């Protein structure tokens, strides 16, 4: 009987096998790491990171590598398969939450620590880095599909993640729709504090917060929200569905998400207009 492994485990295995295949092709060709780097116009450190599995190459990177090493057609086809498998991970929430909600938040924090810039688009709810404690509690309770018992720990870990907004060296660019500002997890009484939180955080030097009003064009379909972590040599997009978390590192796909974020930004209100919009929305709820 075939044994089914979690998709994330299969992706990690594919990354290891791809690294071994590429390293083996280089050794078989007789090229040193520096010689291959010179032939491809890359740094020697990129060659080393790919061979050690620390960086996932794109399909075109793998094809160029094997072309420089004289790899066979069959080897190129195998590399394409492994690259596709290594660059997209899919985890069911019961797998993502298997070690608890707190640990899940800490894993996201590791991505934020490595990123130089984070691009966020949320069409339906406030991003986690901007949530108040009560908002986060209600969201995590609703999304706790695997029945974890550590919601309080998850909330605490999410709030600790927010400390990254106050540091140096990173940029956070948040896009939220008017619908996201108006939606609430369980009770509407939490919204005034949440809107106040948004106004305060939007003034931080590392934060750009823009609103997409519902009465204006978005310039782009809004199929789903996403987070794009700009990490040297391994930028990654995270997409959450009702049942799964997708992690995408394929460079061409990441570039498409980057373009989507740029298009949405062009159609959003300015930062100052966005603060005024949030302020007016908060006042209308209190009237």
Short description:
The chain is of the alpha/beta class. It is about 55% helix and about 15% strand.
Model description:
With 287 residues, this protein is α/β, with parallel strands linked by helices. The protein has two domains: 7-88, 434 Repressor (Amino-terminal Domain) (Orthogonal Bundle), CATH 1.10.260.40; 97-286, Endonuclease, Chain A (2-Layer Sandwich). The chain contains 13 helices and seven strands. It has helices at 7-29, 33-40, 44-51, 59-68, 73-87, 93-96, 101-114, 133-142, 151-161, 178-182, 191-201, 251-267, 271-286, and strands at residues 88-92, 117-122, 171-177, 207-212, 226-230, 236-240, 244-248. Strands 1-7-6-5-2-3-4 form a seven-stranded mixed β-sheet, sandwiched between helices. Helix 1 (7-29) runs antiparallel to helix 5 (73-87). Mean pLDDT is 90; it is low at 1-8.
